[in-house]
Amino acid sequence: RPYAAKSSGGSGSGPCRDEGPRDVMAADTKHKAPPEASPVAPWQAPRSRIACSLYQSAALSNIRDIFADGPSLLDDTAVRVYSWGRNTHDMLGIGSEKTESGAPVRLAPQGKSDFGGACEVACGVNHLLLLCHAHSQRGGSVYGCGLGARGRLGTAPGAGVGLDTDRWTSSLRMLWSGPSKGVGVLQISCGSDHSLALGADGVVYAWGLNSEGQCGVGHTQDVLRPTPIAPLPGPGSKGRVGHFATGGRHSMLVTAAISDMAGGDPQVASRKGSKGSPGTGVGAATGEDANSAGLLYTWGCNQSGRLGIGNTDNQCTPTWVESLRKEKKRIVFCAGGEAHSGAVDEEGRVWAWGVGSYGRLGLGETIDMPTPRVVEGALEDATVQQLALGGWHSVALTSEETPRLFTWGCGDAMGLLRDGDSSLVLQPRSVILRGDLLERGTCIVQIAAGTYHTMILLDSGELYTFGLGANGRLGHGASKNTARPTRVKPIAGEQECTIPVGFCQMAKTKASSALSAGGAKGEVGASTQRASRTNLRRSTTGSSEASSSVGLPGVERRTEAAGATFASEGGETSAEQTEEEVEEEEKEASPTAETGKQQKAFTFADAQELCKREPSHCKEVALKRKEADLTRRLMHYISDIEGLPAKEAHLVQLQSNLDTNFAKNLKVIRAGRPPDHSTSAEGSPVALCVNLYEELVWVLQQQASYLASLAMCLESRDEQRVFYEVARRIFSELEDVRTLHLFTTMLRSLSTKEIEQSKRLAEVFSEGRVGQGTWGRDKSCAFHLFSWLALHEIHYQKLVHPLMDSRRPNSLMAKLIHSCEVKYEVFAISIEEYKKAPLCEEKVKDYDPKELQAEYMLSLQRFEEFIMKDFLKPVKALRLPITIRKLFSYCRTAVERRQFTDSEGKTSCCEPLLKLFVLGVLVPMLKDAKKYAGTAAYLWGEMEKKVESKDNGLSTNIAGLVAFLEKTMNCSKFDDSIENRKVKKLADTVRHELLKYVEAQTDQVSDDIKTDLLVDCCLAHFELTPHQVCIPGAMLLTLSNMLRKNISKLSINDQDLVQEICSVRLKEWTTDEIKAAEEEDALYVMTLNTRFLLKEMQMTVCPTTMCPVPPRMSSLQLPPGQRFGPLVQPFVSDDTRFLVFEKVFTEISTDLQSTNFVGLQKELENELGKVAKPGSMNQNYTLAHRITAALQVLAECQSSDTKETELLDSLRHSLQARQMHRASLEQLAAGLRAVELAKQHHEEELQRAIKTMDDANKFSLTLDLPAPLRKVAEDHGTKLRLEAVSALIARRDEFARSDKGGLAHSLVVTYPLKRLVSKKVVVECGWLEKKDVSLMFSLKDGGVEITVLLRRSSTDSIVQKISLSEERLRVLRKADEGDIVELPSPEDRLLSFTTSKLVELLSDAAAGR
Known about the structure:
Blueprint: E1 50-52, E2 56-61, E3 80-86, E4 100-107, E5 118-123, E6 127-132, E7 141-147, E8 168-176, E9 185-190, E10 194-199, E11 204-208, E12 223-228, E13 240-246, E14 250-256, H1 266-269, H2 287-291, E15 296-300, E16 315-320, H3 322-326, E17 331-336, E18 340-345, E19 350-354, E20 369-374, E21 384-389, E22 393-398, E23 405-409, E24 425-430, H4 435-439, E25 444-449, E26 453-458, E27 463-467, E28 482-487, E29 536-538, E30 544-546, E31 557-558, H5 579-589, H6 591-595, H7 604-613, H8 620-642, H9 644-668, H10 685-688, H11 690-702, H12 704-711, H13 717-730, H14 737-757, H15 781-790, H16 796-804, H17 812-821, H18 831-836, H19 841-846, H20 849-876, H21 882-898, H22 911-927, H23 929-932, H24 942-948, H25 954-968, H26 978-1001, H27 1009-1021, E32 1028-1032, H28 1033-1045, H29 1047-1050, H30 1057-1065, H31 1071-1080, E33 1083-1087, H32 1093-1096, E34 1100-1101, E35 1108-1109, H33 1139-1147, H34 1157-1172, H35 1181-1199, H36 1204-1262, H37 1267-1275, H38 1281-1292, E36 1307-1312, H39 1313-1318, E37 1322-1324, E38 1333-1340, E39 1343-1352, E40 1355-1364, H40 1366-1373, ...
Antiparallel strand pairs: 1-2, 2-3, 3-4, 5-6, 6-7, 7-8, 9-10, 10-11, 11-12, 13-14, 14-15, 15-16, 17-18, 18-19, 19-20, 21-22, 22-23, 23-24, 25-26, 26-27, 27-28, 29-30, 29-31, 32-33, 34-35, 36-38, 37-42, 38-39, 39-40, 41-42
Helix pairs in contact: 7-33, 7-36, 8-36, 9-36, 11-30, 12-14, 13-15, 13-28, 14-15, 14-21, 14-27, 15-22, 17-20, 20-26, 22-25, 22-26, 25-26, 27-36, 28-30, 28-31, 33-35, 34-35
């Protein structure tokens, strides 16, 4: 019974609760036995003694353990409350004069020294709640502190919603007076910015931010006072609230049967069915009552399916998660993370759903899950008693004699000491606790997970924390990160042995009586904080990979900027987070700021520790085994792809028959006629070569190298215009993931070429290009195509709408409208532009120049305020789409690798990215505000009128902002006037802030484009829908001329396919022919060969662009006879000189202490003496041989003046490379699982398509309308034209189509002779047997004509025609089984047929089979 505690009768307490501590301030508590506990239901969760959130932590001490079998350790002092971490808005309750506390600080209420009866603590992002005196049936009071805006503390004046005057509460003060003046509180929980409380009347109350419906009150306005949530629907309305929890922007609760609870339950005693509460009542256990228990309800934000209801629609009222009931699972408690959710059933199994990135769900993959799925792996045979969910990691505690701790997800907060890293962990993994924790016989009794850290509470009353330590959130007195569980030590003056700081004092108990989960943000049974952001580091090739600050010290890592929202991945920065907090968060996440001067040098001891802690699955042997397995699976799918033509042959035949049948029907229908193809386009140059251009367009799309190289050869604006238009049309289908990845690959290749050809950093993605003539360029080709990609409609929702949606109060457009319509401000960066503004016309007339100058300087001041507050805040809160961030990360690496001489530090490497973002995204968006803020971008139509209007000043302010941004990107355009000096200073500030923002967007981005392209290629072959593009004929002619002219610069191998098409199979088109094509104005639709394996039967991955292509399109040619290249890239170590040290450092027993080669040599020689000594217990000749080899390498290093850092860096990079390669293999494995699903979907779609086509063929034979339709027409006296056509066809048919005795009307089918011989239809064919011969059967007038076709040099010639009349067929039908017929006659025999098989073949063809 992992969730239940022993009980000895007595009266009940709060719902699903322990009785709670007695008032420890009472004088007679000393030396008394613990009071009797209330009966505890199987799903009871105790109160949260520890809590943590985004910035802070809190804990209670001296809490009586009423679940313990033995005496309590409670002394005669009052309950103490401690908090530590960041103190913005005084959310620690220690006064506003301190901004943070690195060690626990003891809190006290106003006028008192301690909190009597404090029994539960809860933390939100910007507020803290404390529950006191909740041990009675009447409930207790709630204290709080922190930010009170938008109802966070539930104290805003007025009823309902709409008023919000409280800003924050300094120090803890009473928020809910409790039973003395109303309803007492039994339980509390905090989300990011909202809170829940369970009243003694059985009602769940909610207050705070409600933009996503997280308060569950039926609307999305902020709830400023505690308000009952909406009633529970479904069977849960028969029960009562057993447990509830909060996530970042969502909430959940679990129901309990009334009959399962104690008789003295305050909910049972309360009024039945009170307003806003689930209906409650008293009675014996019934089936209906039992069915009301263990149900899960969720509400609030449902992005990525975090509510578990199977869709992504937000819910403003509690919604029943029916899928769990269908699984017949009874839930005992729930847990909410920032973007994912979890629950534990009565069998102790964990269920998870929501955002799956970073492996936070523990399901073995990183996909989102809209419905609950059971977490298996290491937890499959375990019984979980506690669950705590952070933002990017999850924590579980099992119920055993010694409970085990499991974590999964990512970040240092997982504490995975065994593997020594914080990289992605896709399934639960056990946390190895330090020996001193286990030797004392202690065990974990409570857990909590914050955004960046984790807390574990021991039964001895000691608290351990680990994770990121910025702002003192770990309570260790410093901001140092700690990946190992480290004890929070008592502060000065506290008694360490009996009153450990921040802990509950409780007796050691067995697992069966251990406390259930504590909660970050205060939810009971589950912590709901965002997890530690993944630590990433960048390799020399530009790819990034998750790694541990402990596992790889000294390696550069990039972390997420705190100012960015995480809409695409579930996380989100608090709405009230200030710019100062953003800066502090960036410092916190930065490894350089994290260690600074305190970071010690990487030593041999560190290298040895890394080698010993390297996971077994990252070893080179394991990597090769994984590569072989993935290669085998991939080749299995390729084999399936090669078999698709045979599976689809029936569908192709049905399609051909359908075309033939309708062509015949058009002759019967009087008004019908075949399409008229006699147009001028039929004889045009493109029409004659359309097949070649179709192949060329597909090659340009599939192999990114061609267009990227062509862009570097453009010599005129006309060529540039044609290139842009062709590129946009070839990749027009960006909604298709495959097309998007191919376009991104082409853009990456083009960006690399432009970066390599630029001589200075300032030239990258800038105007013109040195050495390319004097014709000039508006922008680089990479810049132009990037802007088109970023502002494509696929990015409207994540990029355009957050800035340009005027109905969002915090959007940039809303701020611009407010500036001109409410504040009447004018944005202009020069006095001349200021005078032209419509709002300044009267000022220009009435004011003298000095007054006008003063007004202009005042407007500049207001403009500066707008920029710093209203412009930067929404821009920095923007989370760029993952495609853009991956491209930024790749370009940043390319710039860093280029090592420009004018580059100043790492931040300056982001200058080209800043150009792309500001001039390629922000400026075009603002310049065309009518499009991007109106209906063209699926936004408010009234904005188009506002932007066009000259009266409101909006267009003026937008133009002023655009001018400022353009000058910001070129500060040299500012002159030395006073006002321009002020604007230039502002521009420098904005440039600096945006540079930091762009740099942060390149963090936590992995380079997985190769895996994406390979998986996309396989997926495309299992699609039945063709992909097509439309290109004007004149552009195709110009394109082939451009390719032909520059083919020497474009070719990638000796047998280049583009060279063959453009230089050999296509001619060079003249100017007159191109003009004629322009006048023709024909648009050609071309089908792309996305399923090229069905024809080519060969494939390799081009090492230049990573695109999967046929070998003739790759820069790496395959050996003769080899069909497939290395599709799964094998791991190859870049530097093998020092690999011997990895095995030596791993296997030796001595801990290295040396810091140079001389000391290392002595240590290895000593170790060699131990393992090489004959007869020694440590004798190991294999290790001795390796140490000898290592000593030889050391001698070479000393003789060649090799530095120690070179050896250490080589070892570190080797470990990092293997870890990154393992991650790429896991991504490929996940992609192959998607291919398996696509394969199954293809089989289903193929059967559906065959049935549909078969039905269409049957209809095409008779055009016989359905009987119900004919009946309706008959009832209304209407004669259908198609009915008359059907009758005409029936009269012309000589035989019934279901009878083998008759044949259909004219049908033409063709079969290869070899196929007919193999099926025994033809038994003798003489000299035709060795020729490429086909037989064409034409069925007409009740008979059949057989044409023998001989194929020579791609053309068919007629050998002979054999006619069988209707009478002859009647005779053949009567022949016996096995009879042979010789045609055209026995005397002049050419072919011999099996009579029965020939008749069957003709009948099947006539029936369309």
